């Protein structure tokens, strides 16, 4: 029953987040903006369309979106949405599998982009792997910090239950959340790392990698992207709002937290400019430094 | 082993009949696999040892000992050498050089490898070790009429021999302490003596394994060898360094914590610098060679962490760390030989391995390309393939160490954890570059568009290795059983008593779930597309119509942003002919990142020793009488020393 609820939230809720972000951005720009459910409509439309394939592509191009989405779905099985909704699969070390599943999905997307032979997509792929490689230490340091503070190697134990750790590790957790927000923005190709609205400018990263995908393939990619945003957001939300309540109130709180996360992302997108390409590595390294500092604080606490 | 020796002699005799010699050589490997694999697997599953003893009139009793640690290395040796030998038949026949040396040498090097793993005493070990080095030299200088091949071969020979002197010293000191040259377990040494012996072992075995900074021979030697020999060197021969190091830790017994910490540091340096150097390479086999250094680094992280955990009295952490290191030895042997074999097939078909001259090879060589892509995903440690399982164990050991080590060890484990994460990201970038630029997109040169699929005898071993990579990634519970005996030998506790047990079972289950979910999505996608005919068109170039293959993003451009970030480590050298006027006739840019160790340590050292040796040569007497005098003086001095 709880697993079913977990799966239902996981499968149905994510496409709402980009809708919320776009509404926030529209409100800031003084527009009305598309409906909040726009991504659901887009997905429905794309699933019923045919597809066009480039003559240079091979099976790699067709497998790319499928593998990416599958990897993200398996990763989603490892993440708890709180004590009432533990992860369907939890074991010591699942944090590492989670990170590597995101990596597997990215690898498939990048190879599919390179399969088209387009210089645009090659450029996007190159930047994607660059930023991912630099974001990886920040993510893993955050994971190590959480693991040490909570004394566990599994997401479910790390992100469930009352967090007694907050009053002990407050400053460290604040820095971890900062690092994780940077990682989430970079991994999901949001401003200030990438602009999800464009693929024809010199800063293009993610959007340009999927230029050649169409129809159901593109639907899988959009759906996967929303799930990725949801997953990294869920970690931050559970860390920042570690409430536990009865299951119904808990689900409502968690989903409200996710909406707040989307609003924050929308606020960042409305108020920040996209960074210059050569600035991005610096910000990502700064995220690693944040996480390393948090780790240092936690180490001192643990040994005290 | 007798089968191997017989096959070696036979294929040497048959050297003039090229095909027959190679076939006999491959048959010999196959026979060895059939004969030696069952007892090795039995030892792995059941624990215990098997011994073959004989009496040598000079050295006394000698023995071949098959214990779990040896068996763990013997099984992949048998399996992979067979694949390489089968692949080599067609690969070498396509060339026009004499093949007798290759045919016999392959059998002999496998024989030497097995003896290294099974040797029960220092003399046998060192003899086999030297033979292995010499056979490797002979095999890799197959194309010895090229100057770079000769240079690489000599560099290999000189460096590994210099390192072997450390091993001689180590075994000599150890035998003085133990009173015997036979391998036992755990000599009770003082911490100082243990550290000294361990340092000698790290230099001696680390050079063979290709650990930074003694790796310089590796990226020179592996690319110039025939591909199945590159696979053999990279997959198996460098692993003898790891085996030696693990055996040495067993012989030394308790290794102080600092030694383990140093080894862990060397591992991190090898992993990070290896993958960065790989990223900057323009030639496919050289890129793969640098990835060997990276993977040796990952193995050393596991081994170093294991020694640290034993010294800290945390056998459970040590068991996970050693399990990760041991499993990565086998996994790396599998996917690296797979990658070298497929790279060799591409090199044969396209007559070049310059990454930026290839492209779109997957269309012409679907099975070779698919094998390469599977190998690439496996070496990046992506689930559900085998590389993930071993890296997972290393990560897990590092996380567990963060919680239980003393402060300095905690900090180092955290640092290694983050560095390993970065290595994972960089490796994915590097293999996206390699597989993307070589196999995907459109052919950049006619050489790439004229490629033909390799013959079945070459494709077969590749597909077998690729399948093994997938199966090994999904067989966590079974790995738990076969790893148990060697891990217990090294770490003292059973792997099943650690959290790694649930981890191995769950990663296998979720790997299977990943494949199942991907299959389900693929079916849904097919169902959706069934109603609509899929159209074909050219790649969308944002409205630009006259696109040519040379406009594709090159591998060099692909890696460029990361090289720019790490330019302080890689020190790239750039040569540019910029366009000075409109319609410039030549515009060119070239960027190379020569190995900093080679640039700043090896080359000055060689130059310096050249000068020093020239002085020595001048001092050399030219008359026979002075030699006789020198010998006489030396003799008198010796007599005086011994009798006086």
Number of helical stretches of at least 4 residues of chain B: 25
Summarize the amount of helix of chain B as a percent range: over 70%
Order of helices and strands of chain B: HHEEHHHHHHHHHHHHHHHHHHHEHHEEHH
Q: What is the helix content of chain A?
A: over 70%
H/E element order of chain A: HHHEHHHHHHHHH
With strands numbered from the N-terminus, the spatial order across the biggest sheet of chain B is 1-2
What are the segments of chain B in which pLDDT stays under 50 over at least 5 consecutive residues? none
Offer a quick outline of the entry:
The complex is a heterodimer of chains A (304) and B (644). In chain A, 70% of the residues lie in helices and 1% in strands.
Q: What do you see in this structure?
A:
The complex is a heterodimer of chains A (304) and B (644). By secondary structure, chain A is mainly α. Chain A has one domain (2-303). Chain A is 70% helix and 1% strand. Chain A has helices at 2-12, 16-29, 38-47, 59-76, 94-115, 119-150, 155-159, 165-187, 206-209, 215-240, 247-271, 280-303, and one strand at 52-54. In chain A, helix 5 packs antiparallel against helix 6 (119-150) and helix 6 packs parallel to helix 12 (280-303). Chain A is globular, with a radius of gyration of 19 Å. The N and C termini of chain A lie far apart (42 Å). The mean pLDDT of chain A is 88. With 644 residues, chain B is mainly alpha-helical. Among the domains of chain B are: 310-521, no CATH class; 596-643, no CATH class. In chain B, 74% of the residues lie in helices and 4% in strands. In chain B, helix 8 (217-224) packs antiparallel against helix 9. Chain B is globular and about 95 Å long. The model of chain B has no long low-confidence stretch (mean pLDDT 85). Chains A and B meet through strand 1, helix 4, helix 5, helix 6 and helix 10 of A and helix 15, helix 16, helix 17, helix 21 and strand 3 of B.
